[in-house]
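Homework help thread (please don't just give me the answer)

Our assignment gives two proteins as sequence + C-alpha cell strings and asks us to describe the second one. The first is just a warm-up. Here they are:
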Amino acid sequence: MLHRQLFATVEDELTHSPAVALLGPRQVGKTTLALDIAAKHPGSIYLDLESEADRFKLSEPELYLSEHLDTLVILDEVHRAPGLFPILRGLIDRARRRGHRAGRYLLLGSASLDLLKQSGESLAGRIAYLELGGLTLGEVGEDKLDTLWLRGGFPESLTAASHARSLAWRQNFIRTYLERDIPQFGSRIAAETLRRFWTMLAHHQGGLLNVAQLARNLGVDVKTAASYIDLLCDLLLVRRLQPWHDNLGKRLVKSPKTYVRDTGLLHALLAIGTRDQLLGHPVVGASWEGFCIENAIASAPRGTDAYFYRANGGAEIDLLLTLPDGERWAIEVKRSLTPKIERGFHSACEDVMPARKFVVYPGKERLPMPHGIDALPLGVLCTTLRNASKTP
C-alpha cells in the first residue's frame, strides 16, 4: 500500500479544525486516504453521497448527524448535497458549545470552486482546505520515476499490469469524466467539444494561455473558451501557473501558463502509450517540465505560492516558489544530462533575487554549478522542499 504524504497534514488539521475539506480529481485516492484516516479514529462513519443507501441515511441529516457529534464523519462527494453545509455549521457550533472544537467532519470533493463556494458561505472560520493530487515521486520512490512520468499519478493507472492497460484506463477515465462526471457538475458542454479543447491544451503544454486563439481554433467565443479553462482548472485537471509580478520597472509577461496537471492524462490525450513514443514526441520537453513542476509544488511547504517569471527581454524562470517565510526559490527545468544555464535565467535571478537557485535534470547526482546554482535530480529537489517545511 502506498502511503500518502498528505496523511499527516490531514490528521493535523483534524486536531485544529471542526471540518476539513479534501479536494482532488476523481480516482486520485481521496477515499482511500480518508479510510486510512478513519482507521485511526475508532467509531468513524463513512458516507458516500453517490450511494443511494448512504443518501437515504441522510434523508433527515440533522437528526442522523446529531447522533454522531462525538465521532469523525466522512462525507464523500459532498458537493452533491449542498444543503448539508448550513446543517453542518449548526452541528459544529453545537459541538463547540459542548467543548468539542475539532475533528468532526472530513469532506471529500472533486470540484474545488464549487465546493469552496458552497462551504465558504456556510462554514467560514470552521473549515480547512487541503488538495490531494496524483501520487508523487516521494510517495512511489525514485526507481519509479519513468513509469510515474509516463503513466501519471492516478493509482490505478500507475499500478496497471502493462503500459497498454494503463493507457486504456486513462482513456476510459477521460471518456467517463467528459460524458458522465462533468455533466453532474451542471456543465452543459458537449463531451467531444471539451475533449477537443482539453487536447488543444495538451498540445500547448506549458505555453502561455491565449484564450482568444483557443476560441478561434475551437470555433467558439472567447467567453465560452474562458469558461472551459475555468472548468478544467476547477476540476483540478489543468493548472494555470500565474506569472510573478513586482514593481521592477520591467515589461513582464502577464498571461498565465497552462499545464495538464497529470502527465498520464496529458499523454493519453496525445495518444502516447510508451516511453519511446514519449521521447520521440514534440511534447516531451514540456511534459517533463510539467511533471517536475507538479512534483515540486506538491512537495513544497503548505502555504507556498508558485509562479513563473518571464520578462519581455528574455529573462525567465520556469518555477518561482515563495515559501511561507517569504524566501524565494528559483527552479529551472532541463531534460539533459549535461544541463546548461541560459543567460535568461541569470538575468531573471538578478531581478527577483532568490535565496536559492536550482536546476532540475534527469541525472542521478547533485552537481554544484557556477553562480550558486545546484543541479539536482527531481527526487532530491522534492526532499529538499519537504525538509524546508520542517525548518523552524
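The one we have to describe:
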Amino acid sequence: MQLITPLSPQKDYSDKKIVFLAGPIKGAPDWQSQAIKDLADLDIYVANPRRENAAHFNLDSQIDWESHFLALADVIMFWIPQKESDVAGRDYAQTSRFELAEWMAKTRYNRVRKQVVLGIDDSFFGKSYIVKRLETENVPVCQTYNETLKKVRSLLKIGGRLFFTSDTHFSSERAMRLSRRPFQSIKEMDAALVLNWNNTVASNDVVYHLGDFGDFNMRSYLHGKIHLILGNYEIDAFQKTPALQNEMEKCFESILAHDRLILKNGDEVYLTHKPSECKRHMFNLFGHIHGLKKVSSNGLNVGVDANHFSPISEDDVLFFKNAILNHYDYEVFL
C-alpha cells in the first residue's frame, strides 16, 4: 500500500487502484489511520484527506485535491464513526453528507458505477433517514467498520475487464464545437470525460482506444491499461513531429495502426479508427465519425459521442454485435 496525502507530489497514479477515505474528520476519531493499517497488505494507493499538520491549511487547495482524487478513485470508502467530540458551529459529518449525496447523484446513471461503499455507526443521528433514501439507489449500508472494510477489500479484487472507446479529443475546442458536445468549456468537457471514464473503468481493466485521443497529458488521470489504435490526428502528429511517437509510447501499453481481438465468447473483432478501413467479412469496432452513426451492418461505433461520453464494455459490444447480426432489420442500416 502507498499513501497519498494532500502534501504528496503530483505524479501519475494510474498504475494501481485507489481507495479514497471519504468520511468525517472534524469531531471524529482518526478512523482513517486504522483503515490505512487495515489496507496495508494490498498493492493499492490510499488517498487520505486528513492532514497531520493544519498550520498551512488552504481550503481551496484541499477542495481541489479532494475533488481530483475522488474522481480518480476506484473505490470511495465512506465510514461515519461514532462522534468523538463536538465542533462549534457545525453539525457532525456535515461535509461527508454533502459528498455522499454528490457521488450518489454522479454515479446514478452510469451503467457501471464508481464503487461507493458506505458504513454508518448506529450512534449516528440521521442514519435511518440515509438508509431509507438509499434503498431506491440499491446501495446497501454497512453496519460496522469491519463490514465496511470487508466490502472495500472485496471490490478491490474485481477487475481485468475489457472496454472500448474512441475520439475523446481531450482539450480540443474544435471537437467540442463541431460535435456540439454539451459542455460550456474545454475544462468542463475534460472533467466529464475523465469522470465518466473512471466511473466505468478500474485500474486493472484494459481499454482499447480507437484513435483521436487528444491531449496526451490527460492519460495520467485515467484508469486502466490503455492500448491506442492510431487515429488520423495521431498519424498527422507523427508526420509533423516524429519524436512525438517516443512520448506516446510512454503513455500507452501499445500503439497500433489496427488490431484483431478475441472476445470472451470466442468471437473475433477487428479494431480500426475509420469505418472505411473496416473488414467486410468481420465484425468491426470503429470511431472517427463521432455521433453521426451508431451501427453499421457489420460494426459498431465505440466513439464517446455515440456512447454517452463513456467507454463501453465488452458485454455491450457483444450485445450490439448480436443485435446487429441477428435482430436489426434493413431499415437500421439505411
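TA reply:
I won't write it for you, but here's a hint about the kind of observation we're looking for: The chain has two domains: 2-156, 162-333.
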